[in-house]
Amino acid sequence: MGRAIAEGLRFIVKTPLLNRLVFATGASAIFSTMGWTMLVKYVVDYLGFNEGSVGMVMSASAVGGILGAFIVRKATHVIGEGRIIALSALATPILFIGIPLAQPLMEAGVNPMYPLVISGFLMQVSNTFFNVSQVSFRQRLCPPHLLGRMNASFRFIVWGGMPIASLLAGVIATHFGMVTMMWVVVIGEILAAFPLVFSRFVHMRDLPGGGTIEEIETDSN
How much helix, strand and coil, in percent to the nearest 5, is found in the chain? Predict the structure, then answer.
């Protein structure tokens, strides 16, 4: 098992594009977990809404995810395989901005449900673009005999930080305030997208397929 784990990790680390993708996805997962962990408390305790309002925000996000799944193939055809990964990674946290803006907008007389619902909906459209595109790319890129090992290693790296992120969200919200914590999520996720935005992904319409690491590196250049 140790050798299998090492093979999966080695393929991720040594494969161009994939190594950037795992770093960006793992960092993004930490910050997005922080946001979703505290969302219910933020909406109920800080904005004063009831459980039904939380359900409305979650439902809008779910509908956005469904819509994203329906149109991701068309969007990929228009935008390009590499560019949609990089651009959706950056767009998702930008669209999350409606969440921390909900409280100051409420103080200005705007119903905070508008930014919450709109942000949740659009963010999940973009997030679905990213998830479908990057998972499809990983599956196609990896040789079949390494597929399970690569996916296991990739998910361990991405999901491994989520429990810590949940605790960190509570600490930041307790000591610095809930709105500040939500802005940390926005800024952190934007920074997490930089390894993809400032890479060959953003210039590539077509991404490489399967092969050896040497062949993949040649295709990526």
Answer: 85, 0, 15
* Radius of gyration of the CA atoms of the chain, in A: 19
Q: Which of 26, 54, 35, 57 has the alpha carbon at shortest distance from 180?
A: 35
What are the 10-residue block averages of pLDDT along the chain, 221 residues in total? 88 92 95 94 90 90 96 95 96 95 92 94 96 93 90 92 95 95 96 95 84 47 47
Question: Could you tell me if 178 and 104 are in contact, meaning their C-beta atoms sit under 8 angstroms apart?
Answer: no
| DSSP code per residue over 75-128 | HHHHH-HHHHHHHHHHHHHHHTTHHHHHHHHHHTT--THHHHHHHHHHHHHHHH
Q: Could you give the CA distance from residue 14 to residue 114 in angstroms, rounded to a whole number?
A: 45
Tokens of 219: 């295709």
d(Cα 156, Cα 57) in Å, to the nearest integer? 29
For 201, the enclosing helix (H) or strand (E) is: none
